[in-house]
Amino acid sequence: SMKPDIKITLTFLSLIKPKGIMRQVEIVLCVVAFGIVGHGGPTFHSYWNWCMFTWFFCALMTLVIVIIEMLGLHLLLRLCMNWDDFTTGMAMLSSLMVFSASIIYPVFYACKSCILAIVATAVSFLCFVVYTVLAKHSGGGGYLSTVPGFLKVLEAFVACIIFISLTGYFGKLGMEWCVVVYAVCFPITVVIIVLNVLPILKLLPFPFDKVMAGFHVLAVLLYLSAAILWPYYSLSDCQNCVWDNLLVVTVMTYVNLTLDIVDLIYSMFRVFNMA
């Protein structure tokens, strides 16, 4: 059988294509937002760290994608993964992350007279728009382009918002249980995303769809317990707590519970259709 002839050559054609141009714009905007906010000095607050990490991470991952496609290495990567699905997923995730930074930063750190903060916010919002347009027009046609794939990306993103907002849970058994719930569900969600992007599902010695359905049932039950326990223990009898953070965790817990329920419904439909 004939093997595909893949040559790795440096080409700048990918840079002048619409996706290449958008990625370059995203890198510049992320770097500008990172530089402006970093110039104001660190606050070492979890939300400030999240915003800085978001702009750095998104710029870095976008740069890596640009370099890989410029070198033509994506042709090799297509042999072991769905490259288009991966880039679509990264655009979706970056869009969500930058959007969160565009909301969190001005709410906590901007003011009417803070010109640089206003500029950084505007730049971040523009970056969010570009990432959203790229994600919409990428259409990898793989798992991350489907509703279950998008739900998984959303669940992972919401879990990140929960993690950066966690506070005041030490010594409170109910809240500590909730932290365990978040810590257990998040890595499994990431593993599911990775397994679906890599072409190895057919190699697994068990029906992965049924395993996913089982995980979704477990995730719904775990998040249901967290949705009951977290607000009960955190919003009652808490005089010296950071209410903003506790409320964010409460809301995001209910958001992820809703996403898990929808994910479970999709998963059950898939299992029953395969039966």
UniProtKB/TrEMBL annotation:
<feature type="domain" description="MARVEL">
    <location>
        <begin position="14"/>
        <end position="140"/>
    </location>
</feature>
<feature type="transmembrane region" description="Helical">
    <location>
        <begin position="213"/>
        <end position="233"/>
    </location>
</feature>
<dbReference type="InterPro" id="IPR008253">
    <property type="entry name" value="Marvel"/>
</dbReference>
<keyword id="KW-0472">Membrane</keyword>
<keyword id="KW-1133">Transmembrane helix</keyword>
<feature type="transmembrane region" description="Helical">
    <location>
        <begin position="53"/>
        <end position="77"/>
    </location>
</feature>
<feature type="transmembrane region" description="Helical">
    <location>
        <begin position="115"/>
        <end position="134"/>
    </location>
</feature>
<feature type="transmembrane region" description="Helical">
    <location>
        <begin position="146"/>
        <end position="167"/>
    </location>
</feature>
<feature type="domain" description="MARVEL">
    <location>
        <begin position="143"/>
        <end position="272"/>
    </location>
</feature>
<keyword id="KW-0812">Transmembrane</keyword>
<feature type="transmembrane region" description="Helical">
    <location>
        <begin position="245"/>
        <end position="266"/>
    </location>
</feature>
<protein>
    <recommendedName>
        <fullName>MARVEL domain-containing protein</fullName>
    </recommendedName>
</protein>
<comment type="similarity">
    <text>Belongs to the MAL family.</text>
</comment>
<dbReference type="Pfam" id="PF01284">
    <property type="entry name" value="MARVEL"/>
</dbReference>
<feature type="transmembrane region" description="Helical">
    <location>
        <begin position="89"/>
        <end position="109"/>
    </location>
</feature>
<dbReference type="InterPro" id="IPR047123">
    <property type="entry name" value="MYADM-like"/>
</dbReference>
<feature type="transmembrane region" description="Helical">
    <location>
        <begin position="179"/>
        <end position="201"/>
    </location>
</feature>
<feature type="transmembrane region" description="Helical">
    <location>
        <begin position="21"/>
        <end position="41"/>
    </location>
</feature>
<dbReference type="GO" id="GO:0016020">
    <property type="term" value="C:membrane"/>
</dbReference>
<keyword id="KW-0677">Repeat</keyword>
